[in-house]
Each structure stands twice: as structure tokens, then as C-alpha cells.
Amino acid sequence: MSEERPAEPHEEPRVSDADAWATACAEDLEAEKARRRTTYGPPPGSAAEELKKLVDTVADKLSGLQSPLGALAGPAAQQMVRQVVQQAKAAVEPVIERNPDVFDHLAAAGNELLAAYRSAVQSQEHRWTSGPADLADEWRAERRGEGTGRDRGEGTGSGERIDLD
Q1: Could you tell me if residue 110 is inside a domain?
Q2: What is the pTM of this model?
């Protein structure tokens, strides 16, 4: 019979395989992040940070525009444009700073809406681009009373036909 002896107080605890694996994964992840930063530049910030950058960029562009009216009206018109841009920035920036999470949620919601739209368009495109044979087969099945996938409740509707006459 072998007895396991307790670790001596001066011995370092052994690193388990799980800890070694977690450490190796973390190192690999950091190396990959560094490689991507080198290749693609820094990752985008939060939605609030990106919106603030957009506001700053648009404000700089608007302030620097030389409009035909500015040439006619003179420096007074350009000063008025700068003032309006500064007022807009002063109104928007506190909202962004107070509610940064809201913009992250709005960005996520926008991504979900885009995915839903893309899904709807892709399924419709599939129907539009399916060959005439597919449409003919569907028409023949309807004529025989077999129905189609939509009639069997496989689509998003209830599967009931609606008589419009």
C-alpha cells in the first residue's frame, strides 16, 4: 500500500494540466490579438466611442467646408456654420457620455435587424432565382392537390389559403 504524502510547505504546488492548458490558450489568444492589431490596426471601440468619432469627423468637415454661400456672405456665414456645429456637438456629446451602453444595445439591435432582413431577402432571392423546373414542379403539385411546403405549414404563415375573389 502506498500512502500519499502531503506536500512539504517549502515545495511549490504543481500546476495542473488544466491550468497549463488555460495559460497556453491565453498566451495564444494574446499573440493572435497582437498579430491582428499589427495587420488590421486597432480594433474598433464601443459603439459610443465610434459615434463620438463620427460626430467629431462630421463637425470638422462641416466647419472646414468652403460653400458657395460662404464666398457670397463672407466670414459671417462661416462663423455661423461653426457655431451651429459646436452647438450640435455640445448637445450630442453629453448624451453619448452618459449612456454609452445604450449605443452598444442599439448597434446590436441594428445587427439583428440586418440579419433578419438578410435572411428574408435570401429566401426570396432563392425563390426568384430557382429554375423554371422548380416553379413548374411547385405548380404541378398545387394542381394535383399535394400543396407546397408553404401549404404544409413549413413557411412562416398559417398554411391556409386565402381566397381573394
Answers
A1: yes
A2: 0.43
In a domain, residue 33? The reply is no
- Structural domain including 131 reads 101-148
pLDDT at site 165? 57
CA angle 20, 23, 24 (to 5 degrees): 85
Residue 11 has pLDDT above 70, yes or no: no
How far is residue 16's CA from residue 45's CA, in Å, rounded to a whole number? Answer: 36
User: In the chain, what is the greatest distance between 2 CA atoms, to the nearest angstrom?
Assistant: 102
Give a yes or no: residue 112 inside a domain: yes
Q: Cα separation of 50 and 132, whole Å?
A: 47
Tell me how many domains the chain contains: 1
Query: Strands (DSSP E) along 28-151, which ranges?
Result: none
